[in-house]
Write the structure tokens for this entry.
Amino acid sequence: MTDLAAPAALAEPPATPAPVDRRGMALYGVLGFAAGLPFYMFSTVLALRLQAHGVVLAVIGFFAWVQLLPTLKFVWAPLLDRYAIPGFARFYGQRRGWMMLAQLGIFTSLVAMALTASDASLALTALFAVLLAFWTTTLEIAADAWRIELYPTQDEQGPIVAANLWGYRGAMVAAGSGALLLADWGGWTIAYLAIAAAAFLPFPILAAMRGDTADARDRLPALVTGVIASIAIIAATAAITAVIGWVILSSAAGAGVDADTNVTPWVLGCCMLPFLLMAAALPQIRRAPADAPIRRSALLGPYVDFFWRYGFAALTLMAFVSLYRMGDVLALNLSKPMIKDLGYSLSQIGRADSVVALAASAIGVGLAGWLVTRYSMMWMLALGALVAAIGNFGFVWLAQQPVSEGMLYIATGADQFGNGFAGAVFVVYLSLLVNPRFPGAQYAFLTGFAFLLPRLLSGAGGTIVGQIGYDNFFLLSGALSLVAVIFLPLLARIRPRTEEAA
């Protein structure tokens, strides 16, 4: 088999869909809710909070780089496959143990952001936002690895991914609209504390679930030991992050980087570096036998395996996944500041992000989850790119309309439907590229790399808007979503190499 043979799993429609696992859907709905609640709190809501405190747009754009943490999750994803959390793992198993630690990390980070809601120190705000992003990402790594292990095929993935994204996007809407309404009523501290309380609710659900051991008497000792170990891990993580952050900020200040610095060329240079490194290493990786140290390495082996299986076609895959969600990521951080500048209040934005956004997103996710069990992945990817682009173009349309809450609902609905539809299709596609031997690490790598370029560019979004304006910015973001369609004929021919073929 060659790298460009037609893969039946992706190019052809699935066979008769497998029976729906409703218990699995309910479980992944809860896990999606747990991961979705914090996301807006270190992205969109944080951008509006900084804007309310008079932080300049370019610096708000820099804060978008907090979202780079999920793109770098491949750095620590192998730890989740290799190590277990003391206490929790003894009763709940390795995957759930990491999920429970991450839940505690999310709760403490949100409380810390609430207590520093005045943003008197932007360095502290950045520290706690980074910690929130880290623990949210850790929760996603563990949950995604478990999902791929439990549901390995396209027709099984569709309903589970839909349920997971329903929970995820429902939580994002609850956090986004709820936080804005609470902030308008009682201030940012109240808003972050409320979301912290809501984000902690899945923890007792996980704690009450049946354990991996038969003896229920192991539950309480496992919980106590796990909580103590988690406190120590969370404190150590915060200390290490603070030191790393101080070094980065000091280096940036020493290099003269400030709000007036044009960072776009540097960002684009950083985006090109991974492609160059991969292209240079691929010939050696392709020649490596099964017993080569680089393929057996616990740290690098899962990633080397991906490039060994796909060869130079991996570069095509990486380029595609970097572009596919580009438009949505670019629009995420600056869409709300733009809407606020148009004259809409926080309450109006919050109402649009509640029922309207939730319904539109749920319909998009559900429709994609149903269609992906019946049609080929290439057609689904093309349709996802189209509806995502339309959602971005909707912000350009909104800017030309008089201030009207109804118009805001239409633009928000189009954006969330496209985002939900494209997101569900994309998750299934990436899951099918993963080697089941390394589900956590390889899925973390793919999703991390998928958002590396978009989030690097989104950090320079404020600078770009200053140069070309909001209208051209959202036209550009929508066009970039459509560019990904060019890759689909090539993707339809890509198949991974096997040991037998080698």
Remarks:
- The CA atoms of residues 11 and 492 lie 5 Å apart.
